[in-house]
């Protein structure tokens, strides 16, 4: 045994060793392997070896000691667990010998978590399950979980939908208090509409997809000297759903109606969004009615709004309106024809105006997923947007631009802002511009004027080099976001933008109706606090992630049956390993790996996002021909092989 002096010396030695180490805090990031990384608060990154990664989860906040490995790379050793937010797992129940585990699908979590005997409930191996983490692995690397819900068996019809709903905690059922409140709305509806001015004589009609039931806007257009007046009637749930009421709280938690393939999870109960608030033809409905003067050159002039009541005359489909605009007068009722001709004229004027004064969104096709009885993909229908869809889009943009201006004047509301390039990518942006467009390199690209000038210059340039530069720069943009303070939307080229046209589908639109209603009464609405804006943003992101996860699963099942078939597509991703390609026919993404042969590795130009392999260059937006090589449905991975000859022919045709 060690005497007191020896113990004291050993303790001092440990203290000295500890004081000589560099400690830092950061967040754990997983990988596809057993190792991980710690993203340090100072921007550095440290490698976390497998034995250390076993003791933490991705997303954990930790304190680590740092050391330098070969080539100066940092390695981390865990010192303390500061915080762990991962307490919920979704995955498949697997059994290996006497061991029972959940194989989770969380990103970066590439290990199984033990399920003790008393924690398995009635779950059976092979089933998909949702679990609560009841033992963190920091102490000894042995995490444990407890089954909370059995989602279903792999062959259950619609298991993919049920799994994704559980994985992202998407709310399906409304609480009893919210449902009770929804049941009282019908009684109040007649009272509210009876107190309002009725504006049905303007001749409103809804224009939507044939299957749409939650119709939240109707249009009418009248002529005036020097242009037109666009009348937009928008469903008005704000007058019947009080802030902080049970229904309001449920709508806030959902943030928006979630449109998954073959399924909708509405923001409001269906009887409200598809019936009582929906602008059903012939039914008197409360509405926010906005009147916007638009000049013949596309300029938006005066606008005004009122809370009124309307009866929509007709439910028109995009297909009907498109046939009418293309010359088939029998496609729509006679009383709607003048209004639709005026709407088409507004579309032409506004599209031309925005082409020269702001930015137009890319006109990409939509892909309609049709499911069979098993809720798997039966077919995917590629749909180019028709003239009616473009007309409605232009009318909605004009409405949101106009009301964005009103809310900016009030200095209240939930604004949609886009701040341009990511701050951490500005060095790369300026480096590219110094090389190719030096006159734009020193401009403040966070300012609308300078950003607009750059993008317009690139859009009007026909040189392939400039087209590729625009595609590269777009990969460095921030996503759009919500904000309770007005800010520019650089992506649209606008000073202010706020959406108001979908209050039965989007909570930020519902909030903006409340702000406008309070302003009309000479009052101020309660603002959305920063934490509420952040919560809405997180809900929107989670919804997009859920939709992508479900689509990728269904896509993998669908395309697996087409292994060996050839398709055309466009390059959407370029990195050192190969290229990502999106198929023209289906909108499905896959990857062409080019770094498999170590004797014939590709050359990657990370600055310009160009990959060179076998003397062929590959860049973003390039047309290529590929064959479906293999599909891993469990990992949702789709591998393509390049058809070099057909790709070369497509390149030559483009040039």
Describe what you observe in this structure.
With 655 residues, the protein is an alpha+beta fold. It has a five-stranded antiparallel beta sheet with strand order 3-2-1-4-5. β19 (366-371) and β20 form a beta hairpin. α4 (176-194) crosses α5 (246-254). The longest helix has 31 residues, at 530-560. The radius of gyration is 28 Å and the shape is globular. The mean pLDDT is 93.
Mean pLDDT: 93
- Global shape: globular
Low-confidence stretches: none
Per DSSP, the total helix count is 16
Brief description of this entry?
The chain is of the alpha+beta class and 655 residues long. 32% of the residues lie in helices and 29% in strands.
